[in-house]
Mur ligase central domain-containing protein (Nelumbo nucifera), 339 residues
Amino acid sequence: MLSNLGSKVFIGGNLGNPLSDAAIKGLSSSFLEPFEVAVVEVSSYQMEIPHKHFCPSVAVLLNLTPDHLERHKTMRNYAMTKCRLFSHMNGSKLAVLPIGNQHLNEALKDHVSKCNVVWIGDFPGVKVDMVKKVANFRLPTIGVASQIQLGALKAIGNHNYYNAAVAAFCVLALDVGIDGEAISAIMGTLHAPPHRMQIVYSDTRGITWVDDSKATNVEATYTALTGLNEQKSVVLLGGLAKVLDIQGSCGFERLVDPLKYHRCVITFGSSGSMIQKTLWAAGLSIPCIKATNLEDAVNVARNVARLGLSSFHAKNLQQEKAIYASNSIAKDCGYTYKI
């Protein structure tokens, strides 16, 4: 968003180039175009390292769901670690968090005291009207009161509209000379990052392949499936599942409800059998097919999408009863599958 509006931006941190690269370039006498803004992803693992000087102008914690608990042990510890992001922020600096999360609300008491706190889903903060595809912003303390049109956004899934709205809110809060009208004008030029509800292929039969392999936990997959309720998708679930609690649960039973709006599920990979059995035990109401590996899953998904389940089963009687993927459906581990 900032780049499309002409700002010189460093993008990195946990998702790519280390932040130290920006510092080194900034100190170089040969670096003629200094960065105006650094957009940095910071992981909870990095936040475990004590720091005294990390102080963003705007810091966002989009959500808190069960993840990395093999390291953090409890949701309380996880929330406390994530909220270290805000520890040294003060004055007009802005902390942006989701409304109504008990663990975050408790962690805020120890880590946020001297900066502005705003909310995703309430005012002061940002609220999204998904029917009208409009984001409304209110932050009286720094004079932000604006509205952004999201309708032109090229994205799949309701959560991506919220992501775009939060990004726009952060840009406005940075006060770098960009207004709501300018952001609305470039909304149609934005697209999802790789492996995050990314459309990787659309064929002549009207079948669209969506790669959401960055959805590496059940909660992220739940959110994506909820945003695809009207698509009647063939859903690929696989890979190596994360354990969510001390009882050894991986949480896939949570997906039974959003999956009822879709056509079928195809499981694969190391946890494919476990996912299939968990879904069946939880009362999955749509067919579930177990594939041997990712390539097989892609082939099965293509056939189901093109032929329909009845025709597919007539030609594949050896299959167990039985296009979104929370592991890569078209690109994985350096290989590309023809779809």
About this structure: The first strand starts at residue 9 and ends at 13. The chain has a mean pLDDT of 84. Residues 138 and 177 are 18 Å apart (CA to CA). The two ends are 31 Å apart (CA to CA).
